[in-house]
Amino acid sequence: MNKRNTIKQLLHRGCLLMGISAITSSAFAWDFAEHRKIGDRAMSLLPRYLVENGIFPNEAVADSALLQILNMSHMPGSNAYAMNELTQLPNIVTYGTLCGLAGDHVENPMLLETGLQTHFSKTNRTLALETQAMNEFLTGANSKELLDINLAYGILAIKDLSHFYAYGKGLNEHLKMIDPELIRRLQRPSEVNKVFDKLNQLPSMSKYFCIHIFAIYLAQEAGKEMCKGDTQMASNLMFYATMYEAFAEHFLQDSFASGHQMVRRGFSASAVSNNKSLHDFYNTIPVQTANLKGETWSAYGDKRLNQNMMEYNEADDYRHIRVTEKHPYSLEKGDSYERETKVFYQVVTATCESIVEVWKAYQNALEGSGENILNEIPSERDDLPQFVYDRFPVIKDFPIPFGTDLDDVPLEASVAGRKDELQLIVQKPFTRNFIRSRVANSFMFLIGTPIHSNRDGVMTYGGRLNVSMINWHKFGKGKGMIMEPGDIAHWVSPTISGYYMHAPSSSYTIKNWNVKAGANYNMDIFVSPKRFLGLYSYFEMGIDRRNDETRFLVAPSVGIQLGSLIGVHNFNMPGWLRIPLGIILPLKFAVTCNKVAGRPVEWISNMEVDILF
User: Looking at the domain assignment, is residue 372 inside a domain?
Assistant: First the structure.
């Protein structure tokens, strides 16, 4: 009995780990190594940024201030800054390490501090595993191995919804979700755990600003203490300002991952639609993105931060494609040659701007400004967007959420003439819901009738579930979200279906039902960016039940989706319209050949009505 219980426990744990692994692989944006690289690169550039913003006279003075106030050191053989009091050898905790662990592995900055300062901790074991993967040129450790160390990693992935934009909500709507009450509650360390439980429900941009504003508050308090001559207290407060800022920047950096701009995160999206497949799809297809500065770039997702270096495909000669500068910094810190993508440049620039805002707050307080940013936060949510636009230049670096009306946001004056061009980029992409209908889990209702002369009163009623956990796709040329005439998209995924055939007593047809499973193949041929002919097929096998007999069944099908060829796009319709329209009009229909062992072939014509995707 004990052995049987042990086997059951192992099976239960195995299933739990598999389920959580599937969720964790899509719940977070950049992998650990990518977050670390962004954070370390930004911190290495920080002395230059601090000088350019008039905070320190030169980079050497800025570098010295970082080392002294934050108790940092230069990581040997690297351009990274190491946090001395958080480092438990052989682990080395850099600023980028904090960005990488924040949010994905540890829920809040206080838990991050205590976890790193406890030598035999799950946090340090996790960091050792992530560092080993990074040293093997991987972007992150295996999810199962991480779960073996700390099951809480998977639980956090399930309950923390804050690594994604709220797709469909505009920029102002994201900023209105900043919660002033939660920011003020962070003043009491005893409230931190409860506050972060609430922050986990916000979109990434909203959560970033909540934590970033509090980091600025701590920096202001540090500057006031330094102004009074209390160096130790100033160092303590600036340390915590840095911890909170690194945590905030994790969510800033997540906002640049394409899959996290396009996918709506939530329980129903994860458990029903399976947004992991959508997340993975958008990580591989470049998503055109823009910010308030008018800068545009092609965004990719995790594991692809610096892995799309194909400039030579567009080059006419060899004069300007070589990486010739060893590093872009004045200080010698052992940097190496590396290619960088545009999205890497954008996210590092935003991270630098964010850190600078914290140090500006410190410097202003040191000079006696007496400001308290918590007193500046508007009490009315409708006033929060303007507060952010006026107070935080970093907002100009964020990718503009899809669905934003640019008439409602402050574009930089220099790009006002390009508003129409930028609006086309940040509008909800036409292909987004089309892709969702192909990649996400989908369920459809089947209404059919046999194709033979004696079919009066004979009807089939059934359903089909297309499962996206395992899928393959080829989306046109793979160069963007917009399809051109002649482009073809291919999709393959598993499918499960079944139906009941009802026949009146006067019919020679015998009532029967079947259940089957197999593969679904879709081919969409685009004749324009918004019109395509959809061809699809199923190859399924299962069982047929009739006359108290169960027999083997093979059921290939072919179908056609005409609606999108004539401009009737059911995937962009609300359910209350899509479902009745699919019943009234033959937008999608298929013919199935049922071959039951020992019985004649049956031909069934089906209308397919999309219920859920």
Answer: no
